[in-house]
């Protein structure tokens, strides 16, 4: 199963996959970091389509076209803001990944690129977030054979190192 999962240091907006995941906010109207980069690269039609979706709750995900991105689709996933670990953040982040994978199954997505959801401006501890992301990915891949390739796209070296370690631990 580990050949299905890859970790790279790079730019998620450059990934030629069926879908990339956007670490979105609840408005789905763009923001900073990964969210802003995806909206800039996809072009103005993405904002227009996102407006029609009416936002998304924390722990949820919604799908749009990719427009000017190499990816066919964008899955907008709203992770939790870290509040010290006492507000159910770990379960909310796990639910966010499960929401992403529900859309993957519904839309027959065979290749997916994921960022480190909630670890930037939302301050979720990197090691915890990484373990949750990899665990939920592993769980989905065990139950669904349609997803053939998953790429964890890391913007910074510490994130890359955390994902490499978590993937090695989980997938062997």
Itemize the secondary structure elements and their pairings:
Elements (H helix, E strand, L loop, with lengths): L4 E5 L9 E5 L9 H10 L1 H10 L7 E5 L7 E5 L11 H18 L4 E4 L11 H18 L5 E6 L2 H15 L1
Parallel strand pairs: 1-6, 2-4, 2-5, 5-6
Antiparallel strand pairs: 3-4
Helix pairs in contact: 3-4, 4-5
Helix and strand element order: EEHHEEHEHEH
Please tally the β strands and state the result.
6
Quickly count the domains: 1
The CATH topology name reads: Leucine Aminopeptidase, subunit E, domain 1
What's the rounded overall pLDDT mean? 96
Largest sheet: 6 strands, mixed
Low-confidence parts, pLDDT < 50 over ≥5 residues? Answer: none
Radius of gyration: 14 Å
Helix content: 40-55%
Q: End-to-end span in angstroms?
A: 9 Å
CATH class, anyone?
A: Alpha Beta
Q: Taking strands numbered 1, 2, ... along the chain, how are they ordered across the largest sheet?
A: 1-6-5-2-4-3
CATH superfamily: Leucine Aminopeptidase, subunit E, domain 1
Separate helix tally: 5
Alpha-beta content class: alpha/beta
How much of the sequence is in beta strands?
15-25%
Shape: globular
